[in-house]
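Please check the following.

. . .
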Amino acid sequence: MFILNHIKIIFFNIIYGKIKKIANIKKNKEIKIDINAVTKFETYKIYNIQNARLYTTSVHDTAIILNNELVPGASFQYRNNKKNQIINGNIFKNIVLKNGTPKFKKKFSCTIISLLTGGAGKTSYFHWMFDVLPRLKILKKIIKKQKNIYYLLPSLRYEFQKETIKKLKISLNKCLSSDEFKHISSDNLIVADHPYTFDNNPSKSILHIPSWIIKWLKQKLFFNKKVKNNYPKKIYIDRSDSNFSKIRYITNEDEVKNTLKLENFSFVSLSSISFEQQAQMFYNADIIVGLHGAGFTNIIFSKPGCKIIELQSKTAGDVIKNLAIKCKLNYKRLSPASTNKNLPYQSGSIHVNISKLKRLIL
């Protein structure tokens, strides 16, 4: 396998050339950088690059390449630091400097808007909502000036991705998935800064989602607040269908469900209902209980005062707590120690104290 991969790298280096240098942005006339101040406190760089190509692993690395030089700022290479936090590493660690661009290139004679953000944006509802979509707000003025536009997205495999794109009035015919298009070139390539990572530490920055993102998502994705169906007032987020259900779960979930059932809670598997239904359901709810996870993204649609009870391991962090506070929700949590101490952060199983849970839901 090593020999085959080495041959592949050599083959594509012959076709497209080896990438050795980092581009000098100040001296390159084909690179234009605009600054967009979305608020008084949050400003973002927008890279507008002519005749460039983009290569992505569609997970940790995305390289913006001009004249076989790597464009800093517009490119990213996510790595784990010594504290096992994800950071945007040194550009000299970008994978293309080692492996080149080992995929056949697809040429587009148009403007490509890249909304790539790393592997989490491919599958996670939370990261799709907070990392991917807000870039459209950052790029709004630039997009208005363009005529022939295509959008490069982390993925389009999930229904929530397609639904939200349609709600933003973007044709799916104008959308490209990095699952398929890993190496492209275009007449004009546009890339924006990450919406909430300001200190090169996504693991830290995620604790403080800017308020403008929450407001924009509510305005653009949930403009119809008239509840059409008889949605439940009490919700338990059922994560049994989650990709992480084997490494993050409640050991006594049956007991938790029995307790909540006696209090007239409805159990909801969010992946089985549409995005619109999720937003309507969370808007209508008075109390929402669930294990730490992406389903809590929907609390941005909840009405102020709604009670949020998050069940989480002690190492899961304050992401949902801080989001709830910004949305003026009544946040509570139970944080027992994980029974799998060797699993990091939000992973690991927990045992919920039923007596404490009863006190919180009443």
In short: The chain has a mean pLDDT of 92. DSSP finds 13 helices and 16 strands in the chain. The radius of gyration is 22 Å.
